[in-house]
């Protein structure tokens, strides 16, 4: 009985701290959202108003009227969405090959491939830009997409999920007359859906926030992505902080929607990947 009571007390205390840390982590998002609907003078007011005394959407209207924010949003969604879809396709095929197929030098190739994770992307900016320049992809959205189509991280993540899939399923499908492509698409791929969901969110976030490469490639104002465009607002001498908060909020909303839509797969992917039998 004492052990049960101690456990209950421990659960109460631990849940309290979890809730407290959750509130602390959500507070910057709350402050960003509420500040975007204040007047500029209220944002820097001391002591601050924890709850806006007046609500206004004029900051959002100004962002979309004074800047091509709608175009920037489309550019970001197009680049991040298409990059992630293509990455999932290439990573799933490569991970399946490394996990289930047998070919000469497989382990050596996989080790060399994964070793590229140790190379910072900033080191490759110059050669990547020269390649994009030679291919006519500078100031083109596709120039932002192609370097993100195949990454070692995606292959590494999905290979772990394919490794956990029983080989007996693959052998049974082959006995039933299914080819390698059908086995991959109809038998093995549905098993790794949680991993694909986790990879989708992680890569979408990474491409969405890929400021440096998108800044280098998108040189015209119309070719900027939302993160790069909003960053230019932060560099302006305009003292309207509420206006800048509205721009940052516009950049954050799509990320929240993507996470909410894929949260189930992301949670399952992380939990499954954390447990090894």
UniProtKB/TrEMBL annotation:
The record, for Pfam families, names:
BPD_transp_1
Signal peptide segment: none
Q: What are the ABC transmembrane type-1 domain coordinates in residue numbering?
A: 73-262
Family matches, as InterPro entries: MetI-like, MetI-like_sf
> What's the domain of life for this entry?
Bacteria
Transmembrane portions of the chain? 12-33, 77-98, 110-132, 144-162, 183-205, 241-262
The protein's location, in the record's own words, is: Cell membrane
Keyword entries, A-Z = Cell membrane, Membrane, Transmembrane, Transmembrane helix, Transport
For this UniProt entry, what is the primary localization, expressed as one broad class?
A: membrane
Task: Note the topology in the membrane.
Answer: Multi-pass membrane protein
Q: Which family is this protein grouped under?
A: Belongs to the binding-protein-dependent transport system permease family.
Name under which the protein is recorded: Carbohydrate ABC transporter permease
> Which species expresses this protein natively?
Paenibacillus chungangensis
Classification of source organism: Bacteria, Bacillati, Bacillota, Bacilli, Bacillales
